[in-house]
Structures are given as C-alpha cells and as structure tokens.
Write a structure and sequence with these properties.
Layout (H helix, E strand, L loop, with lengths): L3 E4 L3 H9 L4 E3 L6 H11 L3 E4 L10 H5 L1 H22 L2 E7 L24 H13 L5 E6 L2 E2 L8 H7 L2 E3 L2 E2 L2 E2 H14 L3 E4 L6 E2 H11 L7 E3 L1 H6 L27 H18 L4
Parallel strand pairs: 1-2, 1-3, 3-4, 4-5, 5-10, 6-9, 7-12
Antiparallel strand pairs: 8-11
Helix pairs in contact: 1-7, 2-4, 4-5, 8-10
Bound molecules: NADP nicotinamide-adenine-dinucleotide phosphate.
C-alpha cells in the first residue's frame, strides 16, 4: 500500500480523513517504537500525518495536573514516531501548536518559525519539546496551527468556545481555519516539505471582530462582555495564562502553499457554521 496514513483518531485526524477519504487512519494507541514500526511495516505508507496528542479535557488546564500523560503523548510519542518513520524513509508531518509563543513577538510581523519559544502552560512546554527535536530532522515537517476555526460546531472549535463564554478575553491572535489547514497538511505531505511551518492566515484577528462577525452571520441575539486575561485569571475562570499572540507565516510560500486572507477564510467558515447549526440545531 502507499498513500498518506493519519495517526490519531481525534478531532483533527477525523476532520482530515473526512476531507481526504483517500487517506487512511490508524486507530491503534501506540506505546513503543517497535509497535509503531510494525504498523508501518504492515501499512507501508509513503507519508504519515501525526494528529495524535494529549490536549486535555475539558481544556489544556488538565495537562497541568496530568504531566506524565501529557509529556508521553506530546513529547515522547512524536520522537518514537519520528524514529520509526526515519527507519523506513517515510515522510512525517507532525502537528505542532502556535500556543508555544507568549507575549510580544520579537519582530512586528509576528513570531517566526525558528524563533525560540517561551511556553508557559505545561501543554505548551511538551508541544515545544517535540518541535525542538523534530523541527530540524530530515524528512520531517512540523506544522503549527493556532486557535482553529471550523465550519462545524464542536467543543474544540474556537468559534463554539468563544460564542459560549459570557466573558470573552480582549485579545488579538493569529488563527487557522480548519479547511485551509487540512489543505496545508495534504500539500506538505505531498511535497515532502521539511522544517517548521506556521499554518496561520496572514492578518491577526481580534476576538472583538470575530464575535462581531459571529453576531452578523450566525446569531444576532448573541452578546458577551469583553474582559482582560488578568481578570479571568483573578476570577479563577482559567488556571494558566493563554497564548494570545501573532505568528508570521513565512515558510509555506517556499513550497508554493498559500493561505487565504483571514477575513475571507473566517467569514466563509462562519457562513457554513450557520448552515450546519440550522441543519443540526442541537450541535
Ligand atoms: N485542537 C486544537 O486546538 C489544537 C491546536 C494546536 C495544535 N493541536 C495539536 O493537534 C493534534 C491533534 O489535536 P486534536 O484537537 O485533534 O486532539 P484530540 O481530539 O485530543 O485527538 C488526539 C488523539 O490522539 C490520540 N492519541 C494520544 N496518544 C496516542 C498514542 N500514543 N497513539 C495513538 N494515538 C494517540 C488520542 O487518543 P485518546 O483519546 O484515546 O487518548 C486522540 O484520539 C495534537 O497534537 C494537538 O496538540 C491542536
């Protein structure tokens, strides 16, 4: 067999399989490099996309109190997978997170792909640990996404999360629309791209604008209050500081991969989100 094999039977892995049914998915939970090697021997993929990871439930605050599970899933597992892929010469695309960068970027256009990160949350530290090891490996791509916006309502969708909060933090962020992200994964795997990539749209997005577009396109009756992150932490609504910052997408273009303007991609996702809600009011 050939083609692309997805690892990680979670939210993004299944969105990727839905969009590209020619890909296959392994639903095994791996504990050893040997187990991964045996699966690769059986499946013989040309390329692997690693959508497995530990993201915490109900959110990444879980990772603060489950550090071993988080480290094994986000730091140890990707290295084992990279080793098994390297032994077979199989290209690996690993899903990284833009939430390893905190605060003001070192240059006005945002944090670049090889800037040293400053993770605060334990989840972010384990994601960055894998990036440091995999980011320079031959035949490996690390694709970082940030605050995914999807056309399908889901508790992991940034739109669903923010629309459900009575108090929304007043910040500006880089974002990734899911359909565009899935196209990036396919292109990176097909082109055997190597190194670290920031799969974010060109213009940063203020949550105020996102909520305004949400009210215009999805739900005119929606209201929320805008507050500072410090006040949310002081109220105990979040345990650890969140990464609200801007990333620069400077490397995808080297491979002829381009992401749409933020407003175009986000508004299209919101129009489809509304259609999805209308078709499935309980979602
Ligand atoms: N969602 C986001 O907002 C976001 C943002 C940036 C980056 N990412 C990254 O994108 C990746 C996927 O995120 P997601 O939201 O799709 O997460 P998810 O829904 O939690 O899915 C992750 C999947 O990986 C599986 N898994 C964990 N350890 C495994 C192992 N050793 N072997 C095989 N499968 C394993 C999990 O299985 P179990 O459920 O059985 O444990 C789960 O099915 C993660 O690496 C995450 O860090 C996500």
């Amino acid at each position: 067999m050939a083609g692309v094999l997805i690892i990680g039977n979670g939210w993004i892995g299944n969105r990727l399989l839905d969009k590209f049914p020619d890909m296959r998915m392994s639903t095994e939970i791996f504990e050893t490099t040997k187990q991964i090697g045996a699966m690769l021997e059986r499946e013989e993929p040309d390329a692997v996309i690693n959508c497995a990871g530990v993201t915490g439930s109900p959110n990444v605050d879980w990772c603060e109190t489950h550090q071993v599970e988080t480290a094994v899933g986000n730091a140890q597992f990707p290295v084992m997978l990279a080793q098994a892929c390297a032994e077979r010469g199989t290209h690996l695309t690993h899903l990284g997170s833009g939430c390893i960068f905190y605060g003001t970027p070192p240059q006005p256009e945002g944090w670049k792909e090889y800037d040293y990160a400053n993770p605060v949350a334990y989840y972010s530290k384990t994601k960055y640990a894998a990036d440091l090891v995999l980011g320079g490996m031959e035949n490996v791509a690390v694709v970082r996404l940030k605050l995914p916006i999807d056309r399908i309502p889901s508790k992991k969708n940034t739109v669903t999360k923010l629309a459900g909060y009575p108090k929304v933090v007043e910040v500006v962020n880089s974002v990734t629309v899911m359909d565009d992200l899935l196209d990036v994964f396919r292109a990176v795997a097909d082109k055997r791209a190597q190194g670290i990539f920031h799969a974010v749209h060109p213009e940063p997005l203020a949550w105020r604008d996102l909520m305004r577009w949400y009210e215009e396109i999805v739900d005119p009756s929606h209201t929320c209050e805008f507050v500072s992150e410090e006040s949310l932490m002081a109220q105990g609504a979040i345990q650890k500081q969140r990464s609200s910052t801007v990333l620069a997408n400077t490397r995808l273009a080297e491979f002829g991969i381009h992401m749409r303007p933020t407003e175009v991609a986000v508004k299209e996702a919101l129009v489809k989100y509304k259609l999805s809600l209308d078709a499935n009011p309980s979602s």
